[in-house]
Amino acid sequence: MKLIDNVNNRLGDDLKTSIRKGSKMSIAASSFSIYAFEALKKELEKIEELRFIFSSPTFSEENFKKQSPLFYIPNIYKETELCGGEFELRLINQLNQRAIARECSKWVKDKVVFKSNKHHNLPINGMIHVKNTDQEEYAYSNLSSFTTSDLGITHKKGFPTLIQKSEFPDSTAYLEWFNQIWENDEDLKDVTQKVQSYFESAYKENSPEFIYFITLYNIFNDFLQDISLDNLPNDQIGFKDSLTWNKLYNFQQDAVIGAINKLEKYKGCILADSVGLGKTFSALGVIKYYEMRNKDVLVLCPKKLEANWNTYRHNDKNNILAADRFRYDVLFHTDLSRDRGMSNGRSLENVNWGNYGLVVIDESHNFRNNNPYSDRENRYQKLLRRVVQEGIETKVLMLSATPVNNRFNDLKNQLALAYEGDPELINDKLDTKTGIDQVFRKAQLCLHSFKLHTAK
Questions:
Q1: Does domain 2-209 match CATH 1.10.287.130?
Q2: What is d(CA 400, CA 388) in angstroms, rounded to the nearest whole number?
Q3: Residue 3 and residue 9: Cα distance in Å, rounded?
Q4: Domain boundaries in the chain?
Q5: What is the pLDDT of residues 95-150, one digit of tens each?
Q6: What is the CATH number of domain 227-422?
């Protein structure tokens, strides 16, 4: 028996000496990578056949059903490792993935059969068996995947590797074990065609539209992953039957779902979109959801946008959403600086500022200044105290067509409205090592250093 630690001796090098022309190979591993094929390309192209078993479910319908509907791109870890795993980023960055996938696809089509374990709770031990003649065969055990990191070619974090190599006759037991599993059609499923299709999609020419969607998916992947079924809107209240919902474009409906998810999880959300993309209508979709949950809603907007919001509250001919009977209140940013007088037909002395379950702030970038050294309460501080902190729990939806801020502190002040100005209310919900104040502080320092560097 020989021990391989992928430091003093590497599995990839040892396989190169073991594989002969006409070899028959059998592999059980959790994943397969085209870069492992490239590393052993010269040897693998000479073999007669390869039987490969994915030791855990791969390309199974069960895998895809468990995923939230992120997009039409499957976000399945084992499947995506076919074109490079987390320890093969250096190889991926060489931008030769398409060429390797094309070569690997042809080789798979000629010589490889893939099967997958159907069961999560019945794992299969990883191994590689190489059979040359009746008296010359080798078995490698105690390995997990068939990737360049497992071959010892690229670095792999974690515990050290110790692979055992056995020769004939001890290696025969591994082949007999593999054959028993291979013939078990009840617990294995043939996925050769699905693997082949995956490789073909990896090297084919893609339309600009597809590249655009792929780019969007990778930019917003973390956001999509963050959407939890626990925080998704309750469809049973019927808000998707409303006129407002059915007048929204698909991207606006997605914005409504995403905003409600953030409001339920973090109590706050910023909808920052360009002028003309319908932030008002998306906000009305969110408002309708919370009104149907019997929440009182306040819209705070600049005085100049009064008609923009009042239109949908009245039973007028020009109200295309009159059937939804919105009942939200509309007040203005400047009203926060007054304690009396009339505004939009209401007496400010009688406004119960702390009784709103949802406040929608249009042009929320106007509330990015929180000057704690002022001798009197400014509008920001009154909004935070009167509307958010006092009374019932308030969720805050902020709308802004000006998402770019001069300082990270401007963004921080807006987000602080969601967590009532108390970082402890948000820190536990964030998947970060440090609190939100420290995150913004470091971001501002990095931005400052970058500006100094570029100025030089």
A1: no
A2: 19
A3: 9
A4: 2-209, 227-422
A5: 456 778 888 889 999 999 999 998 878 889 999 999 998 889 999 999 988 988 89
A6: 3.40.50.10810
